[in-house]
Amino acid sequence: MTWSDDGFLPSMAQHALALTIRDLLGHTPGTHGEAAGGVRCYAQDPIYTPVDEQVLSEAGFTVLNDPRAFLEVDEASVVIAISPDIPVRQIIADIARPAIMVWDKVTISDPNTSTDPVSPRVIQMMKEYTELPFPPEDEYFGDLAIYIRKAG
Ligand SMILES: C[S@@+](CC[C@H](N)C(=O)[O-])C[C@H]1O[C@@H](n2cnc3c(N)ncnc32)[C@H](O)[C@@H]1O
At 4, phi and psi to the nearest 5? Predict the structure, then answer.
């Protein structure tokens, strides 16, 4: 996040997206000494520097070391994972059914070239979700989709 060139901009935008979704879901910031409430926001990336962690913490994130963010995922979670270097979609498919996922649009990708390849279990999980388009945008987010768990 604190790279000196423009490489930090997608990361900043992606973390801002997480805070925006948190606020849309009814997060209430702490005021007059009262604790903030509602929605907790966790962030995990081994590349975070101490400065990143401080900035994220001040913005309201709890920064966790791998794999602890995965351990926080449950049925009420919103998972955001954008072009990760690890197979987040396969891990999530094995551990939970989050309420919402915002991640790279699920297509049959080549497991030899993608770091987050789609597996048969991911394809199976996606049948439980409705896919909504993420607003087209090439610069900061890539080809994302929003997945909302179907009722029932
Ligand atoms: C291709 S970069 C994408 C970064 C950013 N999301 C973007 O779209 O520009 C892959 C990211 O996955 C992160 N990553 C690698 N291992 C991870 C892990 N175990 N948990 C979370 N993130 C991880 C890398 O550090 C890197 O920031």
Answer: -85, -20
